Amino acid sequence: MTDPAPLYADHLRVLMQRAGTALERGGLDHLVIPSGTQHAKLFDDQAYPFFVNPQFKAWLPLLRVPHSWIVYTPGQRPKLIFLQPFDYWHAVPDAPSGWWVAHFDIHIIRTPDQALPLLPGDAARCAILGEPQSTLGAFAPNNPEAVVQYLEYHRSYKTPYEVALMRQAQQLAVRGHRAAEAAFRAGASEFAIHMAYCAAVGQDANDLPYGNIIALNEHCAVLHYTELGRTAPAPSRSFLIDAGADAGGYAADITRTYATDTGSEFQALIDAVDQAQQGMCRAVRAGTDYRQLHIDAHLTLAGILRDFDVLKVSPEAALASGVSAAFFPHGLGHPIGLQVHDVAGFAASDHGGRIERPQGHPYLRMTRVLEPGMVVTIEPGLYFVDMLLEELRGNGHADAVNWSRVDAFRPYGGIRIEDEVLCTEGEADNLTRPVFAAA
Length: 439
Ligand code: GLY
Ligand code: MN
Ligand code: MN
Hints:
With about 450 residues, the protein is of the alpha+beta class. Helices cover about 30% and strands about 15% of the residues. The protein folds into 2 domains: about 5-155, Creatinase/prolidase N-terminal domain (Creatine Amidinohydrolase, Chain A, domain 1, 3-Layer(aba) Sandwich); about 160-439, Creatine Amidinohydrolase. It is built from 12 helices and 13 strands. It starts with 7 loop residues before the first helix and ends with a helix. The structure holds glycine and manganese (II) ion (2 copies). One manganese (II) ion (MN) binds near residues 253, 334 and 418. Splits dipeptides with a prolyl residue in the C-terminal position.
């Protein structure tokens, strides 16, 4: 696996270049990024888990350092102001170490306000990217639109360092997916499968990029089912797991679906979606409009439903009437990186502007033309969602559906298959499949 360490210097160079242009766009001199603060729970002395400002972790793989700051002034070395409090109640962050340390001027502070004299002289000349709670003296996050737009747009193009970390995240997540499948086949509950996943990855809810979706039977029809039932159903027929991992601040987001009875028709439906999904992944190529991939996915999935005698109409008719959307009611995928649903999926340019979704597809999160360096998920699904099927009946499309076939599949809930794919100058680079194949 690629070691990110030797790639970091180039990554930082790219970030400094981008920051320089972003500051020019904003007419400002310094980029200032607070890591964030702990947020107290209401009427309580406990805090929510700390999640670092994504603008901060873009620069450094530091995820657990509240009240720290990055300062970058073009022409100078970037500065890290690092809070290492005197504290015997909580573990204190280790002194900075790792491949990136040599690239920063590091200032250790012991209390949050000690950052103030280390920040640039004039707060009015700074782009301060953060949450309002990070305000320190005159340094109130202002998030200038021109600066944020530029940085977010260019974050879509992953550096080799970022891709290396994303590959690491895949390795971790696949380890968890293997353990989870084994737990499912042994008859475990959703909660027990979740625990097996976390143990195998070595991460829990505070580390993972999103809450694990671990669903058995009908629960597979709930797109974001995160309840984690404590008792295993009898029998356990189907298992949908959408679970990721974090590596240095970068997310994996992987979904697989399994059937207990591998000779069943539901297994055949899984296999059909799986085959189709691999084709969709191969279609991730520079110059391709992601909106077209999404529309093509509707046609492909409706074709599968027709092959399985669930739909009685052509894929084209199912797409035009909205019938396909009752079975595939989410977007084909989204950009991914520092955030599981990464920024700038709709960005028309680094000056702003928005590329709208196609009419009738309100949940698509990516409307851009693919370019080398972008990483997107490809996650087609087919579900048997009572609420949406009832709507279909009510909308006059009942005749498009073979309802006895729906009844046969309803106890399995649904299917989703999700990989990450890197767009290159040539063929699509599926970050997920080779890791499963090697596991
Ligand atoms: N796990 C959320 C998603 O797939 O987008
Ligand atoms: Mn997912
Ligand atoms: Mn996803």
